[in-house]
Amino acid sequence: MMESVINLLPDAVANQIAAGEVIQRPASIVKELLENAIDSGASKIQLIVKDSGKSLIQVIDNGCGMTQKDAIMSFERHATSKINNAQDLFSLYTKGFRGEALASICAVAHVEMKTRRAKDELGFHIVNEGSKIKTQDPISTQQGTSISVKNLFFNIPARRKFLKSNSVETRHIIDEFQRVALIHPEIVFTLVSNENELYHLEKRNFRQRIVSVFGKSFDEKLVPILEETDIVNISGFIGKPEFAKKTRGEQFFFANNRFIKSSYLHHAVGQAMDGLLPPKSHPSYFIQLEIDPSEVDINIHPTKTEIKFSDEKSIYAILRAATKQSLNKFKVAPTLDFDQETSFQTYNASSNGPISEPKIRINPDFNPFDEVQESEAKKWSSGSSFKESNSKGSFDWKSLYENDNDLKNEKFDDLFVDIKFEEEHEQKTILNEDTQTSFTFIKQVYNQFIQTFYNGTLIFIDQRRAHERVLYEHFSSALASQKNPSQQLLFPESISLQASDAELLKSILPELQKMGIDINEFGSSDFVVNGLPADLHALNAKQLIEQLIEQFKMNPDEVKIDKREALAKSLSKNIAIKRGIKMETEEMRELLIQLFQCESPFVNPRGKSTFFNFTAQEINDKLG
Questions:
Q1: Residue 14 — pLDDT band, cuts 50, 70, 90?
Q2: Pair 111, 56: CB distance under 8 Å
Q3: Which SS3 state, helix, strand or coil, does residue 4 take?
Q4: Which pLDDT belongs to residue 210?
Q5: What's residue 160's pLDDT?
Q6: Is 546 exposed, middle or buried (0-12, 13-18, 19+ CB in 10 A)?
Q7: Distance between CA 413 and CA 432 in Å, rounded?
Q8: What order do you get walking across the sheet with 144-150 strand by strand?
Q9: Rounded to an integer, what distance in angstroms lies between the CA atom of residue 112 and that of residue 125?
Q10: Which CATH code fits 397-624?
């Protein structure tokens, strides 16, 4: 008889495997417990976390509560009050339905529950550790349910080791809290982190809830969207295009009051705003979709954030059309002004006289085979300005080096990105000891590049990339030495951020202070800037901090590798002189001197070339 090799897993192991799908980090527990509290009919929900949820996650609600039997059953796998059969999966209006949340949480943490129904005098206190109920006793407690999750991943050290820093995990918790709180403005929500109240959201309408979560400045940024069809009802708000950000920040889709992620629907909004958004920017939106539950499959992913629509193409088309209509209705989309369109100019006739026939100016004696007349034809085709410019005897070459309307938007990046130097020592011959005093013929080209001549070589420098390199090495040195004096502002500047951005800023405060940015916390989400480094003193402190936060959010991988290096890169990119800015000769000379004193003057901090050069021989070779 063959020996059996397939065995049933113990419940504890099965629960831990399920927990690996459902409970990925503390924020996953926050999501599950908040959704259970909403399903209980609560009108007030409080979330309390300590050490970013690693030590404690507690959710307190005033919902319906449970009996002792129901409370014990809630810890079992696939025990739920939401469905009775498979058909119920297609008529769901609740958040949870699988009955896996509490069982999965108990498998990887210590869980304590207190619950009481309104009609009961006493409630029940249950302690569950590692999927085993330790105690269950009657207790005097308030109506509703309080669940405390402690010592997350106590029995799986490897999972706990892979958790991120407290600031990162807190931001994930805030994200989950916002997703739940936004779509339920009828519920009072509170979030307390390490005894600091980050949010206290009173009962409001949807627009007021958005403003309460993301700040008062959001009120002016929102445009209503509303469309009702037989397939889907769409409501909510979209952000005005001029307020779009470089990061995918405030983008929320809700299907039947459930937060979802959908790149397909995101594309629909983006298509509707095509041509309105700044380059490489993303729109903000808070859009609710109300659709027949039988037309939606929400059981395709353990976290329930990805769903499947039966008629995706129709919903895509309706959403895109509704977004366009909303932008047009509130005069956000640009309109054609035919009075200003030169190709449609009309003739304003006098009311007293007849309309005269337009005259066409021609030369009746023109002969294309006559060289003299051919020369004369050029004058006719070019107009008087051509004749006048030639009468001066020279062309205005100076215009090449200043703002040129035809060329100022030209993209010159390719000149610098793919430059390949044959030998490094050839490049270093430019950078000898006399470099500081030997730059001649310094000129700005297109207000973007610096042209100079040195030692028989013509050099073109990208002013922005060169300044980035100079600033990057300056900030890197300041972080290494921890000595960069701060110049106090005449009037300290206050900065108020949303909670997730505030947590990100807190994580880099020590590095900012080392660089001479005198900034301190002034509350849970408020900060005050008292001083800036002397070389940054003229900058807008609030704008500088907001740009830094955006830069960190755009490049999260850099922060993981080296926070100090990422900060130096972000600061240099945000502060460097922009293309299109006119520079004086001495400013350009000083920038060149500083660039060629850098350890790596050839590339900016992101690896793109700062300059290229031509020798007289290379120019001759190009000309043939």
A1: low
A2: no
A3: coil
A4: 95
A5: 84
A6: middle
A7: 27
A8: 132-139, 123-129, 110-116, 144-150, 56-61, 44-50, 188-193, 196-201
A9: 7
A10: 3.30.1370.100
Sketch the domain layout of the chain as residue ranges.
Answer: 11-201, 207-329, 366-395, 397-624
**Nearest in space to 544 (alpha carbons), one of 532, 534, 559, 558:** 532
Domain 207-329 is found in CATH 3.40.50.150: no
**How far is it, in rounded angstroms, from Cα 567 to Cα 508?**
8
Cα(407)–Cα(178) distance, rounded to whole angstroms?
46
> Could you tell me the CATH superfamily of domain 11-201?
Histidine kinase-like ATPase, C-terminal domain (3.30.565.10)
Report the side by side order of strands in the sheet with 449-454. 440-445, 449-454, 457-462, 611-615
Strands (E), 163-257: 188-193, 196-201, 222-228, 233-239, 251-255
258: which 2 tokens?
A: 């459930």
**Residues 492-513 pLDDT 10s:** 888 888 888 888 888 888 888 8
203 has pLDDT over 90: yes
pLDDT in tens, 326-385: 988 876 655 444 444 333 334 444 445 555 555 555 556 655 555 544 444 444 344 433
Q: Give the mean model confidence (pLDDT) for residues 75-86.
A: 61
Encoding tokens for residue 318? Answer: 């309706």
What is the model's pTM? Answer: 0.68
What's the 3-state SS for 403-447?
CCCCCCCCCCHHHHHCCCCCCHHHHHCCCCCCHHHCCEEEEEECC
